Every structure is written in C-alpha cells, then in structure tokens.
Amino acid sequence: MKLDHIGIAVHSIEKALRSYQVAMGLEMEAAVNVEEQKVKVAMLPVGESRIELLEATDPTSPICRFLAKRGEGVHHICFKVQDLDRKLAAFRKAGIQILPDADGTGYQGRRIAFLHPRSTHGVLIELVEE
Asked: Which domain holds residue 118?
C-alpha cells in the first residue's frame, strides 16, 4: 500500500485554497464534484501524495455531518491498493470492520471503500483501487 491522499473536510474549498495555495504554495490539480459521495473535491499534489479538500454539496453528505460534529480538519487517510476486493477480504479476516455501504466510486471514478475508525484506532481509512 502507498499513501494516496489525506482528506481534509472544509466549509469552503475557495477559502481553504487561500491557505493551501497562497500560504503553502501548492497548486491545485483539479476540482470536481463527486456526486455519489455528495462532495466537491479539490486535489493538491504534495510530493508523491495529495491533499484532498472536501466540501459538502448536500446536507446529507457525510462531510456535512462531520463538519457539524467536529468542525474543519483531517477527515481521513487514503491508501492505494492493487486489488480492493482481496485487500478488503484480508482486513475482514483480520477483524477490521468495513463501513457498510462505503464501497463506491470516488475521485476520478476509482473504486473506494472505508475502514471503520473503531477498528483503526480512531482514524477513518479509505482504500482506493489503483
């Protein structure tokens, strides 16, 4: 596995970009809506990884709920995997809880799944298939 990105929940991508682009000098790779996840995403490359800014596009979005409960900040860490189904089976066998209904499509149409924070010491982990 390799680190793909760190997801950061924000109220406004436009406002957050001021910090990440102006203050830190990062360039935006792309900004797109991911309808299935009910978010707008802005990707900013950092070395071999990226920062993913997440803005809710719907009040029922998990990002909207996260922001209401915890405020802006790190939402998840995402790792690239070669074979998502095989990796999920290995995690299940190891007793790691997979979030129900979290298997879906993410940025760039790639398959994703999430591991429950209860099984990963309080960190939401996303897996993305390369």
From this structure: 2-129
If one counts the domains in the chain, the total is 1
Q: What pTM value is reported for the model?
A: 0.91
Residue 103: is its pLDDT beyond 80? no
Q: Is there a contact between 76 and 125 (Cβ–Cβ < 8 Å)?
A: yes
Count other Cβ atoms within 10 Å, centred on residue 77: 17
- Residue 22, class by beta-carbon neighbours within 10 Å (0-12 exposed, 13-18 middle, 19+ buried)? exposed
Q: Where are the beta strands (DSSP E) in 57-108?
A: 73-81, 104-105
Count of helix runs (H) and strand runs (E) in the chain:
3, 8
User: What CATH number did the domain enclosing 21 receive?
Assistant: 3.10.180.10
Distance CA(96)–CA(47), nearest Å, equals 29
Name residue, tokens 């998840």.
76
Task: Identify the helix (H) or strand (E) that includes residue 9.
Answer: strand 2-9
Supply 115's token pair. Answer: 């591991």
Query: What is the rounded distance in angstroms from the CA atom of residue 28 to the CA atom of residue 64?
Result: 22
